[in-house]
Amino acid sequence: MLAIPRGGVPVAYAVAKELDFPVEIVLTKKIGHPMNKEYAIGAASLTDYFVIPHENVSDLYIQTELKKIRERLRLMYKKFIGDKEPESIAGKTVIVIDDGIATGNTLIGTIHLLKKSSPGKIIVAAPVASQSAIQKLSKAADEVVVLFVPEEFYGVGAFYENFEQVSDEEVLFYLDKLKALKKAS
Fold first, then answer.
1. Distance between CA atoms of 160 and 158, rounded to whole angstroms?
2. Which residue from 5, 18, 78, 161 has the least number of CB within 10 angstroms?
3. Which residues contact 141 (CB under 8 A, 6 or more apart)?
4. Over 58-122, what HEC string results?
5. The predicted structure's pLDDT at residue 185
6. Does residue 63 contact residue 75 with C-beta atoms inside 8 Å?
7. Does residue 139 surpass a pLDDT of 90?
8. Whole-angstrom Cα distance, residue 144 to residue 119?
9. Which letter does DSSP use for residue 156 in this model?
């Protein structure tokens, strides 16, 4: 399983605990639109990026955002993964887990980046998603598993009792718990 930090890590922990699956972090970040940073127009990893073309989004903007995003990703890599090399996903079934899916654009970008590593199958999983996100993701992923798809979607946070941002410390806490589960099995 690949968890999308930060919010996807606690969700992935719960799934991993039930299914006894290993979890790694997938380090991608959305590239936000210049007029609305929360609206994803693509995604970037440390080594690649994917952008859905939009009018009035210059290459200079994309390159500037990539520089900022990759700096954040380098810090996250060091903090969450250290010097460990990521596992190869070639030929494997990969479950990508997040805490919820609003537009699906960030995950679409993540899927495009993951496909370059030749996984056997990509499954996207989340507790909640919008109908439009599921429609988009169904075209990019092999399978989409969502527990709740409301008729009216107002944002992922509306479906949680507590939707405070997951801290780096919480991510490290869950990663440590996952290591302990792995050692115990």
1. 6
2. 161
3. 96, 107, 111, 122, 123, 124
4. CHHHHHHHHHHHHHHHHHHHHHHCCCCCCCCCECCEEEEECCCECCCHHHHHHHHHHHCCCECEE
5. 65
6. no
7. yes
8. 16
9. G
How many CB atoms lie under 10 A from the CB of residue 11?
21
Residue type, 159: F
Report yes or no: 172 and 7 within 8 Å, Cβ to Cβ.
no
When pLDDT is cut at 50, 70 and 90, the band that residue 14 belongs to is very high
Two tokens, residue 14? 């719960």
> Per the structure block, which two tokens stand in for 73?
């990703």
Q: Are the C-beta atoms of residues 106 and 41 closer than 8 Å to each other?
A: no
Q: Which helix (H) or strand (E) holds 39?
A: strand 36-44
pTM score, whole prediction = 0.87
For tokens 């092999």, the residue is 142
- pLDDT tens digit string along 55-85? 889 999 999 999 999 999 999 999 999 888 8
Instruction: Quote the CA–CA distance of 54 and 183 in Å, as a whole number.
Output: 47
Give residue 143's identity as a one-letter amino acid code: E
